[in-house]
Amino acid sequence: MTLPLHHPDDQLLIGYASGQERAGKSLLVATHLAYCPDCRRRVASFEALCGSWFEELPCNDHDGLDALLDRMDGLLTAAHAPAEAKPPKPLAAGSLGGRPVPEPLRSWLPEAIDTPTDDGTWREIAKGVWLSGWERTLSGTTICLLRMASGAPVPAHRHTADELLLVLQGAFSDEYGSYAVGDVAQYVADTDHHASGASEEDCICLFLLDGVLIFLDEAGNPA
């Protein structure tokens, strides 16, 4: 299996390791860890090296977080982080397109999600682009699946808050890069963005959204 090239940022990994990250984003990070030995090592090192630092770090203290990251980068290098690695998490039974979906995500998903149909399993939001009828809200984050047919573009849009995508099947590309199975794409508020399916099979992503999307016209103005 090809290893992911795009990862959650360190703030997300630290939040996950400390138990302070919101539940929706923790679900995405935990699923990414099943694909990514590098992030498993990094999370294990954060857990081993930080200890009580997490409890002492004020919420929203960005200067303190930056200093913590700088310090941990030095410690990770000195401690040879690969030695701290946890064993890979197993892939559970059940699949998308014949590919196993990792836990913990698999336990959250319904059984019938593989094929777009007219029964409410998927709803089309643009030609060749669907959102799953399955949807959850955890700690203010909306979670569902996004599906893109090969070459199908997601309408251009602007984020009003964080958006995260984890590729579960196929691949997609946007103005920032190309993303395959296990990769995480992370967008912050006020990011303009469009994506399209970039594999022969449909691309399916775990899709997390804080806030709402503003769709744009060809000139980049709100539609």
UniProtKB/TrEMBL annotation:
Domain ChrR-like cupin, residue spans: 116-207
InterPro entries listed in its UniProt record: Anti-sigma_ChrR, Anti_sigma_zinc_sf, ChrR-like_cupin_dom, RmlC-like_jellyroll, RmlC_Cupin_sf
SUPFAM superfamilies documented for this protein: RmlC-like cupins
A Pfam family assignment: Cupin_7
Protein name, UniProt field: Anti-ECFsigma factor, ChrR
